[in-house]
């Protein structure tokens, strides 16, 4: 019985197919809102599904230079990482499928696996655009990762635990967003950086370096990377909503809160132009990290005073 | 309906609903290119049909060529075409891409796009209006759905 339950959890709900479908739906919402902001009609509801299906049925060209095995394996690892981290967060307002002490760190690093794989995939070809894209991807990873992690650890410090479902239970009904406004803003903008959305899309700046690290990918590999990105969008939104916006109890709350967050992300995306890579790094290290560190200090001192 | 048919129908559906285009100037005067860019602006909003401009030929399904093929552009054009993964389609935009246009007989051109690549759709005009380009793309998609020849002279008149 337990095996069946585990298999269902892994492949259908809340992991696997369900997260994939949810990810593509959120991608559509993102694109549609973006289009409406630009006064366009925007894509039809099945657009991300059609894109992925088309890419999966296309020929996959494997470049001769670079390691073929890595070329084929990296997209799989990237998607697997993103899907695995879905098991530890309350997707769709459900309880996390699995949880243990410290799963917050594991989930966050599984999410970063996608970015790391993208960078490696870019470095694995001799294509100049891929190489530049890979450098930028990894540079950006190092700039937003630390502040984003610190921002997500804020609620954990308040809850005295590293376990996601305990943090959520603690944050339930408490809008951390008002208690830790800096953490919330850093988490939100860090999410933009993680997803390589404008203004942090220098790693795939199509006007400069074609498609960044994924320039050489076609067909299946590209589809898997895109799917990973979609899943990451959902998981990131879930985490920020659960930690900072008073928890995500039940499906309606989940949809409402994540969509409000997504609306905020779309707003930032359409208002701000692309930053240069050095500006991105400067922004994160000069402002993001310092601000979030200051907030951390206040938190720790406050916890010490209380204890 | 057999299983194979269902899979094929699904593939065709996905292909028809998500054509990503790669734009290549084979020697055009830039008039056609400006019109293609105008087609991709929010005013005409091709994302409605799932059309997306991609920079990398590896991501593209449809190659949009403009202008006559010059001697220099020929090698690059072939290379870009070879870099695209199957299945791929070519659209020739503008009178020059169709026949050489005003450049016909020039010392430095090979001729029209058809002499270098297999072309699926021709869009006449100098330059064609965005509406005409959209119509061409839609014709290509219609052709994918129903591969019977669609050249219908009465309809064109
Ligand atoms: S068809 Fe007209 S606009 Fe287009 S490349 Fe030829 S001359 Fe220029």
Description:
The complex is a heterodimer of chains A (307) and B (157). Chain A is mainly α. Chain A is built from 13 helices and no strands. The longest helix of chain A is centred in the middle third of the chain and has 32 residues. The radius of gyration of chain A is 19 Å and the shape is globular. With 157 residues, chain B is an alpha/beta fold. Chain B has one domain: Rossmann fold (3-Layer(aba) Sandwich), CATH 3.40.50.12280. Chain B is 40% helix and 17% strand. Chain B has a 5-stranded parallel sheet with strand order 2-1-3-5-7, with helices on both faces. Chain B is globular, with a radius of gyration of 16 Å. The termini of chain B are far apart. The chains are: A mainly alpha (307), B alpha/beta (157). At the A-B interface, helix 3 of A face helix 1 of B. The structure holds iron/sulfur cluster. The site of iron/sulfur cluster has 13 residues of chain B, from helix 2 and helix 4.
Essential attributes:
heterodimer, A: about 300 residues, mainly alpha, globular, B: about 160 residues, alpha/beta, Rossmann fold, 5-stranded parallel sheet, two-stranded antiparallel ribbon, 6 helices
């Amino acid at each position: 019985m337990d095996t069946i339950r585990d298999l269902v959890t892994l492949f259908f709900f809340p992991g696997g197919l369900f997260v994939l479908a949810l990810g593509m739906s959120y991608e559509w919402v993102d694109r549609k809102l973006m289009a409406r902001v630009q006064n366009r009609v925007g894509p039809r509801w099945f657009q991300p599904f059609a894109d992925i299906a088309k890419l999966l049925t296309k020929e996959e060209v494997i470049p001769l230079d670079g390691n073929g095995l890595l070329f084929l394996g990296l997209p799989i690892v990237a998607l697997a990482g993103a899907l695995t981290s879905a098991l530890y967060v309350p997707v769709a307002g459900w309880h996390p499928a699995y949880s243990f002490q410290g799963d917050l760190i594991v989930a966050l690093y599984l999410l970063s696996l996608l970015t790391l794989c993208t960078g490696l995939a870019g470095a694995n070809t001799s294509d100049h655009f891929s190489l530049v894209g890979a450098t930028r991807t990894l540079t950006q990873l190092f700039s937003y990762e630390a502040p984003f992690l610190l921002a997500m650890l804020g609620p954990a410090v308040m809850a005295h635990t590293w376990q996601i479902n305990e943090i959520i239970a603690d944050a339930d009904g408490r809008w951390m967003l008002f208690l830790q406004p800096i953490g919330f803003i850093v988490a939100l903008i860090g999410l933009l950086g993680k997803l390589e959305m404008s203004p942090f899309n220098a790693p795939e700046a199509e006007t400069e370096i074609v498609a960044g690290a994924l320039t050489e990918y076609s067909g299946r590999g590209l589809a898997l990377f895109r799917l990973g990105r979609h899943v990451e969008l959902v998981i990131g939104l879930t985490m920020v909503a659960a930690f900072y916006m008073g928890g995500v109890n039940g499906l309606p709350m989940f949809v409402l809160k994540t969509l409000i967050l997504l609306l905020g992300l779309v707003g930032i995306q359409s208002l701000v132009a692309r930053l240069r890579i050095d500006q991105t790094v400067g922004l994160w290290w000069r402002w993001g990290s310092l601000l979030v560190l200051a907030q951390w200090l206040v938190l720790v001192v406050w916890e010490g005073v209380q204890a | 309906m057999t299983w194979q048919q269902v899979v094929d129908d699904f593939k065709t559906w996905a292909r028809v609903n998500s054509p990503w285009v790669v734009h290549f100037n084979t020697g055009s005067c830039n008039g056609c290119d400006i019109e293609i860019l105008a087609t991709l602006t929010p005013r005409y909003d091709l994302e409605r049909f799932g059309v997306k401009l991609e920079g990398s030929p590896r991501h593209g399904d449809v190659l949009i060529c403009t202008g006559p093929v010059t001697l220099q552009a020929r090698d690059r054009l072939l290379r870009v075409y070879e870099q695209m993964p199957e299945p791929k389609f070519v659209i020739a935009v503008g009178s020059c891409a169709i026949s050489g246009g005003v450049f016909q007989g020039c010392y430095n051109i090979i001729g029209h796009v058809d002499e270098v690549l297999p072309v699926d759709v021709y869009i006449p005009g100098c330059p064609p209006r965005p509406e005409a380009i959209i119509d061409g793309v839609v014709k290509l998609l219609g052709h994918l759905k129903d591969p019977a020849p669609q050249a219908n002279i009465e309809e064109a008149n």
